[in-house]
DNA sequence: AACGCGTGGCC
DNA sequence: TGGCCAAGCGT
């Protein structure tokens, strides 16, 4: 492998980005800081293709932070739809409230201020400051971590958790110029998403293939086996099914309907809109204990609200 | 510092 | 088919 100067890496990856980047709505001329922030919340652990329709409807409904802050949290949860991790909707709603309350209704333009908002961590703060405001920030997401691990580190995959050494490496690779640093961050992220993917990377299309330390080393296997995410039988699965019922319910659902298997259920027919999600919930054959525990967890997390009339999304 | 947290597409 | 994976965060 012929060592390639960092400046040339910048030029080649950004050049590739200019030619090949996807035309995503949060990058276009209609981009606002709020749109960037909404997209970053939705993209946390969620693929772009699933975010696109929800993002468009969300911004149409709530064009600015004050618009979202003015409605009940339950509205945010309902319009989050099936994006997953609904606590993100709750945090985005709370962040909108904090922006109205403490920042004059404008999305903060520094990473330090952004970090104080609920649901905004190291990555999202840096990403919003960079992509919404053109700031020079060390943006490190899972795509960037993987590209750096291969291109510079010679490893198949980054470590299981983000390390301080990785942050230093990312900072050392960042172009000095503000505008160029923004392009670099976006370009490396896009390279990781489209070419330098976790499985079956498209190395033949990579603009920096000849500079890749991992390829030069003969593409060694990962140092560890990634731990799978448990799903079947977990509280997480049950919580998801309960949220599905509550999202589609036109009225509060009484606790017994949620935690009792239909064969034991001697109640009148629940509202039509609830039937399908309810069947999905009870097909899980979760124990009453697990159903109760999961429901209590949702209430404790503020994702559901319990009143004498029954359980519903929070108001 | 591990762990819990939704959802669905992909090979 | 089912495990893996996706622009993380909070505790």
Automatic annotation (TrEMBL):
It comes from the Bacteria. It catalyses: Hydrolyzes free adenine bases from 7,8-dihydro-8-oxoguanine:adenine mismatched double-stranded DNA, leaving an apurinic site. The keyword Hydrolase applies. It is an enzyme of class 3 (hydrolase). Residues 42-194 form the HhH-GPD domain. This is Adenine DNA glycosylase. InterPro entries: DNA_glycosylase, Endonuclease-III-like_CS2, Endonuclease3_FeS-loop_motif, HhH-GPD_domain, HhH_base_excis_C, HhH_motif, MIG/MutY. It comes from Arthrobacter flavus. The keyword Magnesium does not apply. Belongs to the Nth/MutY family. SUPFAM superfamilies: DNA-glycosylase. Its cofactor is [4Fe-4S] cluster. Keywords: 4Fe-4S, DNA damage, DNA repair, Glycosidase, Hydrolase, Iron, Iron-sulfur, Metal-binding. Its EC number is 3.2.2.31. It holds the Pfam family HhH-GPD.
């Amino acid at each position: 492998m012929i060592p390639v100067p960092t400046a040339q890496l910048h030029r080649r990856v950004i050049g590739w980005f200019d030619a090949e980047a996807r035309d995503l709505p949060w990058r276009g001329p209609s981009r606002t800081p709020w749109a960037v922030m909404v997209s970053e919340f939705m993209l946390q652990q969620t693929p772009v293709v699933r975010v696109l329709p929800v993002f468009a409807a969300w911004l149409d409904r709530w064009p600015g932070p004050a618009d979202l802050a003015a409605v009940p949290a339950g509205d945010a949860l309902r319009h989050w739809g099936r994006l997953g991790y609904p606590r993100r909707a709750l945090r985005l709603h709370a962040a909108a409230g904090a922006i109205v309350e403490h920042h004059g209704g404008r999305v903060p333009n520094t990473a330090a201020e952004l970090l104080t908002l609920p649901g905004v961590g190291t990555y999202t703060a840096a990403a919003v400051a960079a992509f919404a405001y053109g700031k020079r920030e060390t943006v490190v997401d899972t795509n960037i971590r993987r590209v750096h691990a291969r291109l510079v580190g010679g490893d198949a995959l980054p470590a299981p958790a983000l390390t301080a050494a990785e942050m230093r490496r990312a900072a050392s690779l960042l172009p000095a110029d503000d505008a160029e640093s923004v392009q670099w961050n976006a370009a490396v992220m896009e390279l990781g998403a489209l070419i330098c993917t976790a499985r079956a990377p498209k190395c033949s299309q990579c603009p920096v293939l000849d500079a890749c330390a991992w390829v030069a080393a003969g593409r060694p296997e990962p140092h560890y086996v990634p731990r799978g995410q448990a799903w079947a039988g977990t509280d997480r699965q049950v919580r998801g099914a309960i949220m599905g019922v509550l999202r589609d319910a036109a009225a509060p659902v009484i606790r017994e309907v949620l935690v009792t298997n239909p064969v034991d259920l001697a109640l009148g027919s629940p509202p039509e809109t609830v039937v399908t999600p309810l069947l999905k919930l009870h097909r899980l054959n979760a124990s009453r204990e697990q159903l109760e525990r999961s429901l209590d967890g949702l209430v404790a997390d503020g994702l559901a609200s319990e009143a004498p009339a029954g359980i519903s999304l929070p108001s």
